[in-house]
Specification:
single chain; alpha/beta; TIM Barrel; Sulfite Reductase Hemoprotein, domain 1; eight-stranded parallel beta barrel; five-stranded mixed beta sheet; 12 helices; 15 strands
């Protein structure tokens, strides 16, 4: 049921993706990269679950130092899957980590944060030169929650086209340097946007391999359902060369992302599609990030579960609540939610849309959230 893909084949270390290569399934370590034992433990679980590629995040020089040791330990343990690094906001970290990984992921929406005297094109050129020097592939990772300002201005009335055009433009930048070992991802927490955006991008650049994902899908089973909706629709159209299922689960269960991804892929390949209830998107929608090394307090995973339980009374209301675990994606991803929580080391920022309501402790945030939720429900009533 998966048509022949038209994308070119690229190389990520020993792994080939795109074209006639098998669709690769990957996951990301959710622990703090500097916590070597915890991160290696999670890498081992993800590898044991059958991952084709494993990603970690680097946000500081200490993270980069840890990554070098992680690569050494992986080699010592015979874990030979390619390692990808998420550069987050500081693209200059690429020079430090590139010798130890096979793929660099940068987010076009974060390039404007640093070295404001340099153009985006200059920064991309530097990333390309670094990747080429160390034989790394590149992922252009466009996230709907962190769209580059210029694209918001260019497409104020078409959010989907803003992120698609951003991806297309960055492909042209890499093409201009004759660098072809790259893949594109366009993600959002709403599977309908993921379907729309990736379909548009595939039509614009049918040659470019695509990484599929529904970011901040949330907790099982809803997170699995959201991901399945997007993957079934896209894979059955021949769109998607590698994928990741992003779930908010305990750290010890991170291998579940691989097993769920394999199951969805197997179902689509064999024509086993699961019907989607017509009212699935009606009522309360809770989105939550899957965690990564940027998360500064693991309490947010329990908080997401507590939010889910506390809001059961509001299941019939068309409201979105976002629970985010870090300062990188938290502010942007919560802007589109009716109520958003993004979590710091000791406190939680509560937002109503783009407006900051206040900063609360983990022991008081649920009461504050309930108060704001009651206000919204009363207003709609």
């Amino acid at each position: 049921m998966i048509p022949e893909r038209r994308t070119r084949t690229i190389r990520i270390g020993p792994l080939s993706i795109g074209g006639g290569s098998p669709i690769a399934v990957q996951s990301m370590a959710a622990t703090r990269t500097q916590d070597l034992d915890a991160t290696m433990g999670q890498i081992e679980r993800i590898h044991a679950a059958g991952a084709d590629l494993i990603r970690v995040a680097v946000d500081s020089p200490k993270d980069a130092e840890a990554l070098a040791e992680i690569a050494r330990r992986m080699d010592a343990k015979g874990i030979d899957v390619p390692l990808s690094v998420d550069l987050q906001e500081n693209y200059r970290m690429a020079a430090i980590v590139a010798p130890f990984v096979q793929k660099l992921r940068y987010n076009p929406g974060h390039l404007h944060h640093h070295e404001k005297d340099k153009s985006i094109a200059e920064k991309v050129q530097w990333i390309v030169e670094t990747a080429r020097e160390h034989d790394c592939a590149i992922r252009i990772g466009v996230n709907a929650g962190s769209v580059a300002p210029e694209y918001k201005e260019r497409f104020p009335d078409d959010h989907v086209q803003a992120i698609v055009q951003c991806a297309v433009d960055h492909c042209e930048l890499l093409d201009g340097h004759q660098f072809l070992d790259y893949v594109v991802s366009i993600k959002d927490s709403d599977p309908r946007l993921v379907i729309d955006a990736n379909t548009r991008f595939s039509e614009a650049r049918p040659d470019v391999p695509i990484h599929l994902g529904v970011t901040e899908a949330g907790m099982p089973p809803e997170g699995i359902i959201k991901t399945r909706i997007a993957f079934e629709q896209l894979l059955s159209r021949g769109i998607g060369d590698t994928l990741r299922v992003s779930l908010t689960v305990p750290f010890d269960n991170k291998g579940e992302e691989i097993s769920v991804g394999r199951q969805i892929l197997d179902d689509v390949e064999n024509g086993r599609f699961r019907s989607v209830p017509p009212n699935f998107f009606d009522g309360l929608n809770i989105i939550a990030c899957p965690s990564c090394s940027r998360v500064e307090n693991e309490k947010f995973i329990d908080l997401a579960e507590d939010v889910k339980k506390m809001t059961e009374f509001a299941a019939e209301y068309d409201l979105t609540i976002a629970v985010m675990g870090c300062r990188v994606n938290g502010p942007g991803e919560t802007d589109d939610a009716d109520l958003g929580l993004w979590c710091g080391p000791k406190t939680v920022n509560l937002k109503k849309g783009e407006e900051l309501v206040g900063n609360f402790g983990y022991d008081t945030i649920l009461d504050a959230l309930r108060k704001e939720l009651d206000v919204l429900i009363a207003a709609r009533a």
